[in-house]
From TrEMBL:
The chain crosses the membrane at residues 21-39. It comes from the Bacteria. The keyword Hydrolase does not apply. Residues 180-361 form the DUF58 domain. Keywords: Membrane, Transmembrane, Transmembrane helix. This is DUF58 domain-containing protein. The keyword Amino-acid biosynthesis does not apply. It holds the Pfam family DUF58.
Length: 419
C-alpha cells in the first residue's frame, strides 16, 4: 500500500509529493513497534536422544526451550545417516516452556552429529518473520540391529531346538563320544564297544552326543553392490543384522564364531572364538564397518578365506551379483571352498524387482522393463542352481525374512550334523 501511495504522489506531482514519504514512515514505526513486541529469542535448548539407535529403526528425540514464542516451528539439519520430519512444531507446556517430539530414522551406521536447529515464528503484527539458528551439538550413534537378540527370541529357539527336543529324541545319534554304559535289552547293537566289552567280560555300549565347538565364520562382502538400498537400507546393513543374529545363535549353540570382510581385497579376519565374547567383538566390528564404493574381488578374497580356514568350517557368505557373467568367478571360487567346507550362500532379494515382474505393462517402456526384470531373475536362478549342485545351501529371501531363514538353515545343519 505504501508503494502504491508513493507511485500515485509521484505521478500526481505538486504538493502531493510531500506526503509520499508518510506511509513509509508509518510502516517503519509499525515494524519497530512489532519488533519490540515480538522479539523474544528462545533460550536454553535441551536436546534428549537415545545413546544408541538400531539401524533401520525410528527413535524419538525430545527438544525443549525454556523461553519460546507461540506458533514456533523448527527444522533440524539432518546428517547423512539420519532422517526425520522436514519441519515440526513446538507445543507450549504447563510450566511455560515449549516442547517438541521428533521422529528420527536411522538409515546409516556410524556416529552422526546434529549441529543446528533452525527456528521460525511470525511477529505479533505479522510484519516480520524471525529465523534464528541455535546450536545443538548432539551426537547420535547408529549401531547394527540386534533387536532379535535382545528380545530373547533367538535364544529360546536355539535352546529348545538343540538342547531340548533334539537331545531327548536323538540320544546315541551324535558323532562325539560322551560315555560308556551297560548294554541293556532294547539298545542298538551297533553301539556295543566290543573291545571294552571283552576286557570287562560284559557288554558295554558307547553313548554319543551331537558334536559341539564347530567353527562358524561369517564372511561379509562389503563391495559397492552391497550399498544398493532395499527397503530403505543398504544391503550390507540387512546382511549385518542377519549375521549378528546368526552369530548369536551359533554362540548359544556351542559353536565358535569368527568373521571376515572383504571388497577389492581382504580387510578383516578374526579367528573363531567361543561364546558371547565372539558376539561382542563381531558387534563392535560391524558397527565400525564403513560403506565403500569399490568393486569386489571374489577370487582374491575367497582364496584368502580358504587359506585362513584349514579346519572344516561352516562358512556363511553374504554377497551379491548382477548377472551370470559377473558371477562366474564367484561361483568358481565358491566351488573350491565347498570341497572342504560347508557353505551357506546368503543373497538378499529385491521386492521391487519382483513387483515389476508381477505388474502388467501399460506401454512399450513397461514391456521392456518387464523383460529386463524377468531376465535378471532368471539369471539369479541359474546361479543359485549351480551353487546348489555344488552342495551349497542357498538362502535367498527378502530383507524382512532373511534372518529367520538363515537361522533355520543353521539349525537344520546342526540337527543333521553336516559340519
Amino acid at each position: 500500500m505504501a508503494l502504491a501511495i508513493s507511485v500515485i504522489t509521484v505521478v500526481t506531482g505538486g504538493a502531493a509529493r510531500e506526503i509520499g514519504a508518510v506511509p513509509w514512515i508509518v510502516l517503519v514505526l509499525l515494524v519497530v513497534i512489532d519488533m519490540a513486541m515480538s522479539l523474544r529469542r528462545p533460550q536454553n535448548l535441551t536436546f534428549e536422544a537415545p545413546a544408541e539407535v538400531f539401524v533401520g529403526e525410528t527413535a524419538k528425540l525430545q527438544l525443549e526451550l525454556a523461553q519460546a514464542p507461540l506458533a514456533l516451528r523448527a527444522k533440524l539439519d539432518w546428517p547423512e545417516g539420519l532422517g526425520g520430519d522436514a519441519e515440526f512444531a513446538f507445543a507450549p507446556a504447563a510450566d511455560g516452556s515449549s516442547r517438541a517430539e521428533v521422529a528420527c530414522r536411522a538409515i546409516r551406521r556410524g556416529v552422526w552429529r546434529v549441529d543446528h536447529l533452525w527456528l521460525s515464528w511470525h511477529s505479533r503484527l505479522k510484519l516480520l518473520e524471525f529465523v534464528p539458528k541455535l546450536a545443538v551439538g548432539a551426537e547420535i550413534r547408529v549401531v547394527p540391529n540386534i533387536r532379535m537378540v535382545q528380545s530373547g527370541q533367538i535364544t529360546t529357539t536355539v535352546l529348545s531346538t538343540l538342547y531340548g527336543v533334539k537331545e531327548n529324541r536323538a540320544v546315541g545319534e551324535g558323532s562325539e563320544f560322551q560315555q560308556l554304559r551297560d548294554f541293556v535289552q532294547g539298545m542298538d547293537i551297533k553301539t556295543i564297544d566290543w573291545k571294552r566289552s571283552a576286557r570287562r567280560r560284559s557288554l558295554v555300549a558307547k553313548e554319543l552326543r551331537a558334536e559341539r565347538n564347530h567353527h562358524v565364520i561369517v564372511a561379509l562382502d562389503n563391495g559397492y553392490l552391497m550399498r544398493e538400498e532395499i527397503g530403505g537400507l543398504p544391503k550390507i546393513d540387512h546382511a549385518v543384522t542377519a549375521a549378528l543374529a546368526t552369530a548369536w545363535a551359533a554362540a548359544i549353540g556351542g559353536d565358535l564364531v569368527g568373521y571376515y570382510s572383504y571388497d577389492v581385497k581382504p580387510r578383516t579376519f578374526s579367528a573363531p572364538a567361543p561364546g558371547r565374547t565372539a558376539f561382542a567383538r563381531l558387534r563392535s566390528w560391524t558397527a565400525e564397518l564403513s560403506y565403500v564404493s569399490r568393486e569386489t574381488n571374489h577370487t582374491l578374497a575367497l582364496t584368502e578365506l580358504n587359506a585362513r580356514t584349514p579346519k572344516r568350517s561352516l562358512l556363511i557368505i553374504f554377497t551379491d551379483f548382477v548377472d551370470t557373467t559377473s558371477a562366474e568367478l564367484l561361483v568358481e571360487n565358491i566351488g573350491i571352498l565347498a570341497k572342504r567346507h560347508l557353505l551357506i550362500f546368503v543373497a538378499i532379494r529385491d521386492p521391487d524387482l519382483e513387483k515389476l515382474v508381477e505388474t502388467a505393462p501399460g506401454d512399450l517402456d513397461g514391456a521392456a522393463t518387464l523383460v529386463a526384470a524377468n531376465q535378471a531373475l532368471n539369471e539369479r536362478r541359474l546361479v543359485f542352481e549351480k551353487l546348489s549342485r555344488m552342495g551349497v545351501t542357498i538362502v535367498d529371501a527378502k530383507p524382512n525374512a532373511v534372518t529367520a531363514r538363515l537361522i533355520s538353515a543353521y539349525l537344520e545343519i546342526k540337527a543333521r550334523e553336516l559340519i
